[in-house]
Amino acid sequence: MRLVPSLVMLCAAFAAGAINSIAGGGTLLTFPVLIWLGLDPKVANATSTVALWPGLFGGLFGYRKELENSSTILFRLGATSLIGGAVGAWLLIWTPSPVFASLVPFLILFATILFMCHGEINKRLRLGSLEQNPTGLWWTGAIVFQFFSAMYGGYFGAGNGILMLAAMGLLGLNDLHRANGIKNFLGICINCIAVFSFALAGLVVWEDALLMACGALVGGYFGAKMAVRIGQKWVRRGIVLIGFIIFVMMIWRLRS
Rounded to the nearest 5°, which phi and psi values hold at 254? Predict the structure, then answer.
């Protein structure tokens, strides 16, 4: 393997791991790099998913203190994520993607705007909070949204972290660092089935995936620690900025 492509992949994976631990959207760094290296788009997507999966463990470890007393939501939404991620991975393997791909930028834009406004929306709709003994209706809404979010995450996943953060904000989970920890755990659940499915389907270039996984693992831990230190206000601004950048990049990619 040539030195320059290897360094590019490592740097892209490190940055993607950090971005995924804070918000989501790291795929938009690793996916174009793998395309640039000559991989088929479907293979590039699968390889990127496998490469970035370990980074979520680094992010989860970085947020471990924020996840105390979260076992109920982790279990319920984690199980939902496993099922949704499996459905999404199956869709990627067996169905064409042009129509869905054309909708992705607008899903990300919607999620970013939702994240910007979730505090006011939550106040007006009085959706309640995870800390206030959520009702059955709260859990139903959370599980339904997470299923579709996980299905999207298993299929492609760019910006899926922003979708999950926006949903948790609407549902009253206002501690952003705790929400990020939960999001990373759910991302692990979503992608564990996708990684297994892509491996069985022969869509993964393992040499590239394992190299990038090392960068993503370190980047995920670094991103989580950085987010906790710089404070929620700047993390929120960073998430919004990431969301708009991903939207612009995907629109440009669709038109190019």
Answer: -65, -35
DSSP state of 95: S
Handedness of CA 33, 246, 167, 119 (dihedral sign): positive
Token couple for 145: 């949204």
- Other Cβ atoms closer than 10 A to 132: 9
Nearest to 183 by CA among 215, 155, 157: 157
With 0-12 CB in 10 A as exposed, 13-18 as middle and 19+ as buried, what is 204? buried
Q: What would the 3-class secondary structure string for 17-43 be?
A: HHHHHHCCCCHHHHHHHHHHCCCCHHH
Summarised one tens digit per residue, pLDDT across range 156-191 is 877 788 788 877 877 777 787 888 889 889 999 998
The pTM assigned to this predicted structure is: 0.78
Residue-range domain boundaries for the chain: 3-255
Question: In the chain, which stretches have pLDDT less than 70?
Answer: 1, 97, 100-101, 118-135, 227-228, 230-232, 235, 256
Interhelix angle 232-255/3-22, nearest 10 degrees: 130
How far is residue 147's CA from residue 194's CA, in Å, rounded to a whole number? 14
Rounded CA Rg of the chain: 17
